[in-house]
Amino acid sequence: MTAWLKLVPTWSYLVLALVLAVGVQQIRVVSAQSDAAKARADLADYRTEVSERDRRAALFVIQENQRRQAETEKADAEAQEQLAAARTDAERAGSALERLQQRLAAAEQRSRDAGNAITAQLSQAAEGAARVRADVLGRVGEAAQLYAGVADERGIAGSACEKAYDAVRGN
Hints:
- By secondary structure, the protein is mainly alpha-helical.
- It has helices at residues 2-7, 10-113, 117-169.
- Helix 2 runs antiparallel to helix 3.
- It is rod-shaped and about 165 Å long.
């Protein structure tokens, strides 16, 4: 077996070793290129995944802001409706006060028109007291109307603010 090895020149062993080394290196290069291609594909997949996640997060933020805006606008619209109802109630109360004052004035006029001397003297005495009562009643009514209007507006505004805050918080 060693005889045939002596027939092969020495330089051919070097050529064979060189060919084997180049072949091994070629296999390693192909393997590295394959690994690099897989890494590029993985990186592209990761970038796609991150991009999709960012798109979904941005969409969620937009939808959440729209939801909050809609809830805030809804609370504001409800507050405006309540405020309009409170103003209507205040106008009704003012009208009722005016009617009461008109009735009092009509009653005073009837007592003055009675014509009886005793009634006239009693009427004059009662008239002064009635005027004071009417004046006090009018002032109390106006003050009550003013305070009720302010209280209604502030109560409705506070309620609307709470509703808007709850909507923004997501409760």
